[in-house]
Fold this sequence. Notes:
This protein is an alpha+beta fold. It has helices spanning about 5-20, 20-25, 30-40, 50-55, 75-85; strands spanning about 25-30, 55-60, 70, 100-105, 105-110.
Amino acid sequence: xxxxxxxxxxxxxxxxxxxxxxxxxxxxxxxxxxxxxxxxxxxxxxxxxxxxxxxxxxxxxxxxxxxxxxxxxxxxxxxxxxxxxxxxxxxxxxxxxxxxxxxxxxxxxxxxxxx
Length: 115
């Protein structure tokens, strides 16, 4: 198990003991191949840690928070958000290669593409 997956499992165990609703809302992870297929159309590559995150769990089902009030977005939700930003021509405000992972009321935590 990698350091990242080990840390995520520790977070999951804490959620299971202290915030059962959040733990039970985490969706099963995706295979590497499923992630690759869903990201194939992006004009940039994401770091391997994003692949590992989505192999661990594919976001949350519902509005339950993962940390503070932020929800862990499924891969599909992240891609929908990017598509929306592109359709609204918001790419002038959002850096190329930025990928949202967590969301709360229109605020996001994300990661940027590999150079």
